[in-house]
Design brief:
The complex is a heterodimer of chains A (232) and B (461).
Chain A lengths: L7 E5 L3 H13 L3 E5 L2 H10 L4 E5 L7 H10 L5 E6 L4 H9 L4 E4 L4 H12 L9 E4 L2 E4 L4 E4 L2 E4 L2 H12 L5 E2 H9 L7 H16 L7 E4 L3 E4 L6
Parallel strand pairs in A: 1-2, 1-3, 3-4, 4-5
Antiparallel strand pairs in A: 6-7, 7-8, 8-9, 10-12, 11-12
Chain B lengths: L4 H56 L20 E5 L5 E4 L15 E6 L2 E10 L2 E8 L1 H52 L14 H50 L5 H31 L8 E4 H15 L6 E5 L5 E4 L1 H17 L6 E9 L2 E8 L6 H4 L21 H11 L3 E7 L4 E8 L3 H5 L9
Parallel strand pairs in B: 7-9
Antiparallel strand pairs in B: 1-2, 1-5, 3-4, 4-5, 6-8, 9-10, 10-12, 11-12
Helix pairs in contact in B: 1-2, 2-3, 3-4, 4-8, 5-6, 6-8
Classes of the chains: A alpha/beta (232), B alpha+beta (461).
């Protein structure tokens, strides 16, 4: 497994028990976590402390998460922000992301998912919106639904292409099955794990068969990632 | 026409009653006038008879059987029908305008009879020896009748026109406030719930109707806001405990000392929290749909690609059941709508077609596009839905086959239908035969309807 560097995190969550679970899980992962339960206190703390990352709940007493986000961004705070929201409606997600949040997660979430996103945010870079994606010796042409590996040219189906596209846009980042389901099937809940496994199996068969270096890795207890050569 | 149907009805009925009233009126007048005229004629006949008796008496002297000649009939009575009979009933005189003795056997003093195709009024008078029949044609009176009838032809259309114009005007006076109420009510449901129908001064029938409607809108707004608040609160109140539950269970699962037996039961608990969350998500979605707050995000996309993806899933999921999939889908299907919502709807239909199919069954997906409406029909060899259950398949938590074995919680179809309706379309059960079940999804290919699905403005929590 890839080793992640420690990140200084401020957890802003009014539900005491959930906050406790969050900070324990983050600390187990090797991060440094501080918890705040109140909106206004959180604003001061986030502005004055030097945090790499904020885990910010939307529903908070005294000041809601969107307002905190707005004030922090206008005050020039550059910490990465991961929003937590109980509302899974689209407009909320959009409001969060356009308001300067770097990522969002809807409650309830898998802890592994949260950790994966935290790790990803610790080293996220701008992903070009290109229709040609590269990871190692593999090139994906999204428009043509076509993968090139060395001399081989492999055609992909609609779902296979969508799945590989999500994985290859952020090489090295582990995606949980839930996140894949959300990105590819556009549904976070009621997802069929079996289906994702079958598509991954097909992709492996098409792309990795006969190759000494597999492109798609299984990340234990979490999901899948594609090999990232730049950090290997 | 349909728009003014009430007004048209009013005009038609008013004209009908107006017409009947004028006909009855004129008919009654005619009967009275006729009776009057006949009475006057009778009086004239009596005078004539008296004059004749006198003349005949003067002429006959004592010979009562002497024939009477033309000369003794006064000039004034030349156009009358006259018959004079002696004591034994023998005819003493018959006026020349009579071809045969027809005025006989009359016993009543006055009566009307047809002679030679014409109505004749006859008076019978007796004076000791002689019997005198004097008749006059009713020609003039009948002519008067025709005069009246002719005037009807001119008067009635004028009367009808006046009635129609009057009732049309009355109709608009009575209906204008109702029309404005309709417009106001329409505005309230489509745009803003806090608007009210402007009340008018008098507390007449219309004023009271406005008050009742406004009170109804007041209640509607109240429950609407409550429902909207509920869905926002519920989403927080439901999901926070589920999130705590899930985080707690995951923490337990992460402990290395857990026995495999415990691990299995805790893993099952985790599965149950996922299920609980899925039901909560679906209920919240329905609750948003009910309050019209299903915020849709319209984008351009190809429905064909979306269907391809779903069918790919169906091929994988149906492989164990040996399912055959047939498709009839156009090469491209440009759509403008909320891709996520439409995807959810399509996936639901295709997954149901896999889930409820028999072994070796078929799934047929056909898409047709007419103008701006796309119709997607998904049929499968399901066991069919009994007709008494077919009406309920879109109800929440309803399971068509009543078994608890099948996966899912009976919300899929009702959600799919709400999403279709939010896109200006609908979802219907097209066929439910014993070995063939087919659902048809209609969608508007343009986002015109999507954009009108505005959430009502609500006070912020």
């Amino acid at each position: 497994m890839v080793r992640f560097e420690s990140v200084r995190i401020l957890v802003i969550e009014d539900e005491v028990k959930l906050a406790a679970h969050l900070s324990r899980a983050l600390e187990t992962e090797g991060h440094e976590a501080r918890v705040v339960h109140d909106g206004k206190v959180a604003l001061v703390e986030a502005r004055e402390g030097t945090y790499d990352l904020l885990v910010l709940d939307v529903e908070l007493p005294r000041m809601d998460g969107f307002e905190i986000l707005k004030q922090l961004r206008s005050a020039g705070v550059t910490s990465r922000i991961l929003m937590l929201t109980a509302r899974s409606e689209n407009p909320d997600k959009i409001a969060g992301l356009t308001g300067g949040a770097d990522d969002y997660l809807t409650k309830p979430f898998a802890m592994n998912e949260l950790l994966a996103r935290v790790n990803a945010l610790g080293r996220r870079f701008a992903v070009p919106a290109s229709s040609i994606l590269r990871a190692g010796d593999v090139t994906l042409n999204v428009e043509k639904r076509e993968v090139r590996r060395g001399e081989r040219c492999i055609e992909l189906s609609e779902r296979e292409c969508a799945l590989l596209k999500v994985l290859m846009r952020e090489p090295g980042r582990a995606f949980s099955r839930m996140e894949l389901s959300e990105r590819v099937w556009e549904r976070a809940h009621e997802y069929d794990t079996k289906l994702i496994e079958i598509y991954i199996g097909r992709l492996r068969k098409k792309i990795d068969e006969g190759s000494s270096q597999p492109l798609i890795k299984t990340v234990r207890h979490l999901g899948y990632a594609v090999r990232d050569d730049s950090s290997a | 026409m349909k728009h003014y149907s009430l007004r048209w009805k009013l005009v038609t009925w008013a004209a009908f009653f107006g017409f009947s009233a004028s006909v009855i009126c004129l008919w009654t007048t005619w009967i009275l006038v006729r009776a009057q005229e006949v009475q006057a004629l009778d009086r004239r006949l009596t005078t004539d008879a008296r004059e004749l008796f006198r003349d005949i008496e003067n002429f006959q002297g004592i010979n009562k059987r002497r024939d009477v000649t033309e000369r003794f009939v006064p000039l004034a009575l030349r156009d009358r029908l006259v018959e004079v009979r002696g004591p034994e009933g023998d005819i003493l005189y018959m006026s020349p305008n009579l071809s045969e003795p027809v005025l006989t056997d009359g016993t009543e003093t006055f009566h009307t009879r047809q002679i030679g195709g014409r109505d004749v009024r006859i008076g019978v008078f007796r004076d000791q020896e002689l019997t005198l029949h004097v008749g006059a044609e009713l020609k003039e009176i009948e002519q008067l009748g025709w005069e009246i009838a002719r005037s009807l032809v001119i008067v009635i259309p004028i009367v009808l026109l006046l009635i129609a114009a009057g009732s049309w005007w009355l109709g608009s006076v009575a209906l204008t406030p109702i029309e404005s109420i309709r417009r106001a009510a329409e505005r309230i449901t489509a745009e803003r719930l806090d608007e009210r129908i402007p009340s008018r001064g008098p507390a007449d029938e219309i004023g009271r109707l406005i008050n009742v409607l406004n009170a109804t809108f007041e209640r509607l707004q109240g429950s609407f806001e409550q429902a909207a608040r509920f869905s926002a609160d519920a989403s927080h109140q439901l999901k926070t405990p589920i999130a705590v539950l899930r985080a707690g269970i995951e923490e337990i699962l992460a402990q290395p000392g857990l026995s495999s037996e415990h691990r299995e039961s805790v893993a099952d608990l985790l599965q149950q929290t996922r299920r609980l969350n899925s039901v909560a998500e679906n209920l919240l979605l329905l609750s948003r749909a009910d309050t019209g707050r299903l915020a849709l995000r319209a984008t351009e996309f190809d429905l064909r690609k979306l269907l391809d993806g779903s069918l790919e899933d169906a091929r994988i999921l149906g492989v164990g059941n040996d399912l055959q999939i047939e498709t009839n889908i156009p090469e491209t299907l440009p759509m403008n709508g909320d891709q996520e919502m439409i995807s959810l709807t399509v996936q639901n239909l295709v997954e149901n077609a896999v889930k409820y199919n028999r072994h070796g069954g078929k799934i047929v997906v056909s898409v047709e596009k007419h103008n701006h409406v796309v119709q997607i029909c998904v049929g499968n060899n399901g066991p069919g839905i009994p007709s008494e259950r077919a009406a309920h398949v879109f109800e929440r938590f309803y399971r068509a086959r009543g078994d608890e074995q099948t996966r899912g919680h009976g919300l899929g179809l009702s959600i799919a239908r709400e999403l279709a309706r939010a896109h200006g379309g609908d979802l219907t059960l097209a066929r439910a035969q014993s070995d063939w079940t087919e659902f048809c999804l209609r969608l508007s290919a343009s986002s015109i309807h999507v954009q009108t699905q505005k959430p009502p403005t609500l006070p912020q929590e």
